[in-house]
Specification:
15 strands, alpha+beta, 26% strand, 352 residues, four-stranded antiparallel sheet
Length: 352
């Protein structure tokens, strides 16, 4: 990430921040515009195919021209939408980094509007615009972890640094258990690693190294269907395909364009609902390198065996869960039938 020089003048700093905000808004607007055009173009391609299928009076050359135009336009606009999404992410990262360095070269965001500043043997937590009470925590009472968050069973992931802080410093009136800890997270960046080294702090956890995007070796999977979502998806799938089938006679005996539009919408809805029906399940998978959990809502996490210290069967209220303990915290995953028994048999040192 390119670092923008921080000027001495406060007025110039605010000017640069406003420029970043305008750039982000522009990228965001172009992203939604090109995304909408791309979706409309692909829908137009589907409608074109249906119209020319039921209207033999139209020439084949016109069909090819229209279909090529819609598909080409959809692909170009889809690529443009992806490009602007990447530009938006890059601009936001540069804006946040610039705001951090406007405060201090040793400052980093650890939440919305909250900065953590290293120096003088302590970590200072404070608001980026003042007003909030400053919190000072001695280095001796904090721990830092290098964490790679993986959303898929492969080597690459998103790096961050997690701060383990005593809860009594952040709790109102200091009301917290003596040993209770809180975790806050900030983006990993070279400047942060330099500051941690300069301050003589130890960074625990996984070492941040260059990663090849290799996939991991699957051993077994456990599935949990979600009946309520499957029923809803099944109803929408039947409705969608019924509309698609009904659009065909409407195109033949009533109006080609209107019937084709109905068929295209129904087909899209039916295929989308079919995809939702198949995806309406949670997955717990065991790999040679670790464990993978995917919620039916889309939330995913992969944990390498190196960062898992123990897996325990416990309760969250009345619900049985698997508590996956890591040095920086714990994850609570549903206790799916057969999972813990499999882990006990194959990984007794972790599930003892």
């Amino acid at each position: 990430m390119r670092e923008v020089p921080v000027p001495d003048s406060a007025r110039k700093r605010e000017k640069i921040k406003r420029a970043f905000q305008r750039k982000s808004k522009t990228y965001s607007a172009f992203f939604f515009i090109f995304l909408a055009i791309s979706v409309a173009a692909f829908l137009g391609a589907i409608i074109s195919v249906i119209v020319f299928e039921f209207n033999g009076d139209l020439s084949a050359s016109l069909a090819i021209i229209l279909l090529s135009s819609f598909l080409g336009g959809g692909m170009v606009c889809g690529g443009a939408a992806y490009l602007f999404s990447r530009l938006l992410s890059a601009a936001d990262l540069m804006r946040l980094d610039f705001s951090e360095r406007c405060d201090s070269e040793k400052s980093f965001y650890v939440g919305e509007g909250t900065l953590a500043t290293f120096g003088n043997g302590e970590l200072l937590l404070h608001g980026d615009r003042g007003g909030a009470k400053d919190i000072r925590i001695p280095y001796a009472e904090i721990r830092l972890f290098s964490v790679c968050t993986r959303r898929a069973p492969k080597e690459k992931g998103e790096w961050s640094v997690v701060f383990e802080l005593p809860a009594r410093y952040l709790a109102k009136s200091g009301r917290a258990e003596k040993d209770e800890k809180l975790l806050v997270q900030t983006d990993a960046k070279e400047r942060l690693y330099r500051v941690i080294e300069e301050e003589g702090l130890t960074l625990l956890g996984e070492e941040h190294t260059a990663q090849k995007n290799r996939r991991y070796a699957l051993k077994t999977k456990f599935y949990v269907p979600v009946p309520s979502k499957r029923r809803r998806a099944l109803i929408m799938m039947i409705l969608g395909f019924a509309v698609a089938v009904g659009g065909i006679p409407a195109a033949i005996w009533w109006n080609v364009t209107a019937g084709s539009f109905l068929a295209a919408i129904g087909l899209f809805l039916g295929l989308r609902s079919l995809s939702n029906f198949l995806a309406a399940k949670s997955v717990f998978a065991v790999y040679e390198e670790g464990i993978y959990w995917r919620e039916e809502s889309g939330e995913r996490i992969f944990l390498k065996w190196e960062e898992v210290t123990a897996i325990l069967r416990t309760q969250a209220g009345d619900t049985p869960v698997l508590k996956v303990e890591c040095p920086y915290g714990a994850y609570h995953l549903p206790d799916i039938a057969g999972v813990y028994e499999y882990l006990q048999q194959n990984y007794p040192e972790t599930c003892g």
